[in-house]
Structures are given as C-alpha cells and as structure tokens.
TrEMBL record:
InterPro entries, alphabetized: P-loop_NTPase, RapZ-like, RapZ-like_N, RapZ_C
Binding site for GTP: 58-61
Binding site for ATP: 9-16
Residue stretches spanning the membrane: none
Superkingdom field: Bacteria
A Pfam family assignment: RapZ-like_N
Alphabetical UniProt keywords: ATP-binding, GTP-binding, Nucleotide-binding
Protein name: RNase adapter RapZ
Stored HAMAP family: RapZ_like
Domain RapZ C-terminal: 167-283
Span of domain RapZ-like N-terminal: 3-162
C-alpha cells in the first residue's frame, strides 16, 4: 500500500524543513505540486511501485487550493492512506522569518491592486483565510517556538518514518583555503608538530606510513586525538537525540595535507564501530565511501 504524506500550511512555517526530512527518510518528494495533479501523481506512483511519497501543496498553487479539502476526502474514500500535516506559526514568527530570509510572500503579486503591493500582514491574513478549512480538519503543528530539529522530530514521529542512523563524517581541510561550510564541529590542529618542514615528508600525506610514524613520536599528537575523541563520544548521543542525520567533524591544519589528514584517519579508527562512517580529505580528489 502506498504511503502518502501531504505537507501544507502557512508560508514560512517550515514546509521545506519537513519535506527535506521526509526525503532523507526515503520518501519520493514533490514540492509545489498543483492540487489538480495530485490524483494523477498518486496513481502513477502506485503503477511505478512506489511505497512512500510526500507532496507539498500550498498557496503557491492558489487556483487549485480551494478544492484541496474536497480532493483529500475523495482520495481517502478511494483508499489512499493520506496523512495531511498542516504547519502553522504566529504572525510575529512569520514576519521575523520573512525579514531574515528577505523573501517575498507568495501572495504578494496576486494581491497587488492599482500598483500597490500588499503588506506582509495582509498576505498572511489572506492566506489564513484561504487555508482555514484545511487547518480545521487536518493535523496542525505550530512551529512558532520549534527549532528545525524539533520540527523534524515531530514530523518523523507523526508519519512513523524510519529513524536513520546518524552519518558521522571526519573531514580534513586547509585553513588557508577556508573552513568547510558543511562543518558542524571544527578542531584546529595547527598547534601540532608539522611534517611539512621535513623535506622527505613534505610531498607525502597523513595517510602515508612515514608521516604517521613521524607524528606518533609526539605525545601532543596522541593527546589531541584522544581529547577530540572524548569530546565527540560525550556529545554524540545528544546530537543524535536532536534527530540529525549528519554530523561533520572538520579537522584543520595549515595545508590540509599532513596533520589534519592523520588526525582524521586516527579518529576514524577510534569510531570504527559507528556506522555509517565517512572520511573526507578536502585537499584530495578521492573521497572514501560510506562504510
């Protein structure tokens, strides 16, 4: 039986966060699907043998939105196990989010009269009126005071999605090239002895045995690795409770070739029992696969 989740609600209330969570948990997701195509899309999904699909329909498809409540009832009568999640938030929270994102409300052009653009407050008020019937008959999540992690957890529990194991990534990088934008935790190992100044070791990397042996002679290197590992072990359970799917630990040195690479490799050994585990060395073209 095809499992269907429909995400709808007020613009700016977190639909993108919810849809990404469902995509990460194995749903085939479609954003901004016109409501008139929903029946056809579900029939096609069944024919293709899909097991789980998620669709976001909201005021962006205003012309079709008025008939959505009736369509939902029809689809349920036809036997589709359709779960609808309506995301909502306070006016104050919505206005703050729009201010931070600097995006226009999707009804701005629709409500423009005599060359005058409507205020954000007007757009939100009209959208609430348009979606009132949906809000009254479906499951509502108020995201006003929710963090994105909490919203993901609530959606996941509601749809009983499979809980994913957190992907732990160790990534080496060169500070001279900038800190990785996807890093969650960053550790600076530039204080450790540098093999770069040994002419024989300079062309090698932290994955090469001569470099590893050279670094192993310094107690500070082992101590740094142990301290980082202890920190991660202590806090990893809380990151997992936050319903994260990924945690990237970035280790940086000056050139991203020796010390950071070696530390990442040693940390990966210490966390070998964690699966999935990913090792990345940003200054090298090859990326090790997920274990």
């Amino acid at each position: 039986m095809l499992k269907v989740v429909l995400i709808t609600g007020i613009s700016g209330s977190g639909k993108s966060v919810a849809l990404r969570l469902l995509e990460d948990t194995g749903y085939t997701c479609v954003d901004n699907l016109p409501a008139r195509f929903l029946s056809e899309f579900l029939a096609h999904s069944v024919a293709q043998g899909q097991e789980r699909v998620a669709v976001a329909i909201d005021v962006r498809g205003l012309d079709d939105l008025h008939g959505l409540p009736a369509l939902i009832r029809e689809l349920r009568d036809e036997g589709y196990p359709l779960r609808v999640i309506f995301l909502n938030a306070s006016d104050h929270a919505l206005m703050q989010r729009y201010s931070e994102s600097r995006r226009r409300h999707p009804l701005t052009e629709r409500l423009r009269t005599d060359g005058r653009a409507p205020s954000l407050e007007e757009c939100i008020r009209v959208e609430r009126e348009i979606t009132a019937e949906l809000r009254e008959q479906e499951h509502v999540i108020d995201t006003t005071d929710l963090t994105p992690g909490q919203l993901r957890a609530w959606v996941r529990d509601l749809v009983q999605a499979d809980r994913l194991q957190l992907v732990l990534t160790f990534e080496s990088f060169a500070y001279k090239r900038g800190v990785p934008g996807d890093a969650d935790l960053v550790f600076d190992v530039r204080c450790l002895p540098n093999p770069h100044y040994d002419q024989a070791l300079r062309p090698l990397t932290g994955k090469d045995e001569p470099v590893a042996q050279w670094l192993q002679q310094f107690g500070s290197v082992e101590k740094m690795i142990d301290d980082i590992a202890t920190f991660i072990r202590r806090w990893l359970p809380l990151y997992m409770q936050d319903t994260r799917n990924y945690l990237t630990v970035a280790i940086g040195c000056t050139g991203g070739q020796h010390r950071s690479v070696y530390v990442c490799e040693q940390l990966a050994i210490q966390f070998a029992d964690h699966s999935p585990l990913l090792i990345r060395h940003r200054n090298q073209p090859a990326v090790d696969p997920v274990l």
